[in-house]
Every structure is written in structure tokens, then in C-alpha cells.
Design brief:
93 residues, 0% strand, single chain, 56% helix, mainly alpha
Length: 93
């Protein structure tokens, strides 16, 4: 390995706090920058509104649950076995 005198001098300057050759000091910014701003399109705003409405909705459709429960109780609920098997396979795979 070849160690050159220039390399040693550059490293020495770094440790001594002197600027290395070919570099310049950047002064702190004098002016205060304006804060960042975000502007959403109308489509994005509509999407946000719809998403908020969906989050406010219940996950359970109470009318549908009551309807199916009533059909089960009176014996008129008879789903097709093919549909049941398809749903079971869809859940597994």
C-alpha cells in the first residue's frame, strides 16, 4: 500500500478543523423559508370524503343479519351446497 504525503496532510487538516483543499464553507441561511404546503386535487378530496364515510359505517349489515336469522329460524334458509363448498375453498386458498 502506497501512502502519499498529500493524503496524510488532508486527513490532518480534517482532524485539525481546517477546511480541506477544494471545499468551501456554506454559511447558515439568512432568510426563513416558507413552510411546506400540500394542495389536494378535487378527486383526492372526494376520495378522502368517501373514505371517511366508509370508516364511519358499521361492518355488519344489521338488516341482512336479521333477514337471514329469520329465514334460519323458520326453516326457509337453504343455501346451495355448491356455494358453501366454493366459499369454504375460497377461504382456505
Amino acid at each position: 500500500m502506497l501512502i502519499r504525503n498529500q493524503t496524510i496532510a488532508a486527513v490532518s487538516r480534517l482532524y485539525a478543523g481546517a477546511p480541506a483543499a477544494g471545499t468551501r464553507r456554506v454559511d447558515a441561511a439568512g432568510a426563513v423559508q416558507a413552510p411546506d404546503a400540500l394542495e389536494l386535487s378535487g378527486e383526492a378530496q372526494s376520495f378522502g370524503d368517501i373514505l371517511q364515510q366508509l370508516r364511519g359505517m358499521s361492518d355488519v349489515r344489521k338488516e341482512r343479519v336479521a333477514e337471514v336469522s329469520a329465514r334460519v329460524e323458520n326453516g326457509s334458509y337453504a343455501p346451495a351446497s355448491v356455494d358453501i363448498a366454493a366459499k369454504m375453498l375460497a377461504m382456505r386458498y
